[in-house]
Fold:
Amino acid sequence: MSESNKAANTVAAAAVARYRNNFLKEVEERVEDGDMVKMCMQCGVCAGSCPLGPHWEHSPQKIFMMIRAGKRDEVLSSDSMWMCTSCYNCIVRCPRQLPITHIMHGLAHYANRLGMVPKGQPTRDIAKLFWDNLLKTGRVNELKFSLAMYFKDGFVQGIKNALAMQGIGLSLMKAKRLSPMEIIGGHKCKDQSGIQKMIAKAREIEDRRRGALA
Amino acid sequence: MTVPIATSQTILVVGGGISGMTAALEAAECGKDVVLVERSATLGGRTALLYRYFPKMCHPTCGLEINLRRLKANRRIRVITMADVQSIGGSRGAYTATLKVAPRYVNENCTACGECEKAVAAEVSNPFNYGLNKTKAAYLPHAMAYPQRYVLDPSVIGTADADKAKAACKYGAIDLDMAAETIEINVGAVVWATGWKPYDAAKIQPYGYGRFANVVTSVEFERMADPAGPTGGKLLRPSDGKEAKNIAFIQCAGSRDENHLRHCSRICCMASLKQTQYVREAHGDTAKSTIYYIDIRAIDRFEDFYRNVQNDSTVTFVKSKVARIAEDKNGDPILHGVDTEGYHRYATAHDLVVLAVGMEPESNGIRLPDDIVCDSSGFIEGSPDGGQIGAGASASPLDVNRSVQSATAAALRAIKVIHKTASAEMAQK
Ligand SMILES: Cc1cc2nc3c(=O)[nH]c(=O)nc-3n(C[C@H](O)[C@H](O)[C@H](O)COP(=O)(O)OP(=O)(O)OC[C@H]3O[C@@H](n4cnc5c(N)ncnc54)[C@H](O)[C@@H]3O)c2cc1C
Ligand code: SF4
Ligand code: SF4
Structure:
């Protein structure tokens, strides 16, 4: 866990202490669309509709029941929210119109902020690389992003990954979708510091709203 | 036709199902004049289309017969069938109702001998069996139809069949010159007893109704179980005509669902519990019924009925709303979902699937007077001045027993309106 994560965690720990064992209340107040969790009537349609359903441990239906049962650690360290591909099958079919996909993403986001995501969770790692990459210049640097992804598990694995993806990389270059020049600086938006300030502000507003600073 | 004499003292009842008949009879037996208007060719409504009805598993003809006897004994009720209410103007105590009466092409001379039916060749979709089979274009709606009079389908008018029917009738009952008529009547109060209709199952896309032959609705299943139905009472699969022994019932098909009907239709849990007994009746101990449900709502005092079905070894309950249905190459529907009691994933094949479709107010398809107040599902509450009143399944999804209670209450309220109108008129004189 990084230093900044640890610090965030200490603040967060203080903030969630007031929920004691009421994990549902915590989710309602601090997770995006968490206030809809209580609307679930446990019909099971979402669980049966998820194309990845057989491959994860906890279906949305189960996650929502676990939230109500106060299984905080199990929920927040679950792999399941990270497996959601946003196909929206569950949302379309849910008879209570729960924004299931959004809640799953909200939970993933919340778990991340608390530093409770299982180590090496690939979706989380890629999302983090993408975000850090984007934050620097306000534009995604495809080349640096791909390289960072290849080398995230070490140098040797990185070379192997790069070789395996070589063909796709070359085709992308030919199609002018990827430029080798991006390695030096790369394209950026006009007002870099403005973007960064905007994001810092957004983060501050969200922290306040989600009670992480309280 | 002769326009009925109606005044501000008359009660108009729209819809001749069990609720409309009850409201009309209760009011008439209290000495009020009633005009009972029914859109189809017969009274009886949707109850007449059930095979048996809970809780006592009696045949609907039984209840219908009692009411028809009361009706025949009462001179205060004027029944108009094949009539639609076009508009209702005015207010409490002084309404003008405009009715459009469709031609039946058969007059009072009809003895229901059936010669015209034998004579015609054309066939039309049979409304009594929800279109599952065909009937001759000259037909009696069903055995208990009231009036006991044949109907000629408008599609044969102007064809040789119409002339054949006319020639076959020994009583001069076929009248091919009948035309649609619009009549106006004055009434003091209106009871809306327009009933319900099954929710359109094809809208529940993941269940494949309309795409998979062996997915049927609960109302169709009632007809399949009935000896007077399209399969002569045998539970046969529509795809291949094989006997269906392993039958799944899916609850809340369209009900309790913000994407479809938001209300609980209340009777469908009981209807499916009842229908498992049709399966048992057909196959004895080798029958196999599975009810997939969110929770069973055995309304009113019917918990004992539920318990008896739970104790039936041929019936299994799976607590799960089925997510979707697929079909294998034999035409067997495969139900996919996750069981809430243990979160087990299943993919189960059945011979036939019955969707326990929800009850939607029939009035959702018609234009109601502007001052009628409906709830968020379209069930009729009535007019704020109390002159128009909802009764039975048009007011709320109700079973027969509670429809009758609701209709009796509506009759009482209509009588009150008539009394108040009468005393106001007296005071003016
Ligand atoms: C699958 C299934 C099984 C059921 N089984 C049972 C059971 O076993 N026991 C039980 O108690 N209940 C059962 N019910 C419920 C039962 O069908 C209803 O309680 C009953 O039909 C209500 O009667 P009603 O007169 O209010 O409405 P309806 O029976 O719908 O009658 C309404 C009448 O109004 C007429 N009408 C409609 N619109 C107009 C118009 N604009 N102008 C003129 N006339 C009009 C219609 O043609 C119809 O004749 C079942 C329901 C379903 C879906
Ligand atoms: S589909 Fe909706 S109501 Fe049903 S279990 Fe999933 S979230 Fe709950
Ligand atoms: S009565 Fe049963 S099947 Fe019908 S909507 Fe209510 S819960 Fe669902």
User: Anything to note?
Assistant: The first strand of chain B starts at residue 10 and ends at 14. The pocket of flavin-adenine dinucleotide (ligand 1) is lined by residues B 14-20, 37-40, 45-47, 50, 53-54, 84-85, 193-196, 218-219, 222, 267, 271, 274, 359, 362, 366, 392-394, 398-401, 403 (CB under 6 Å).
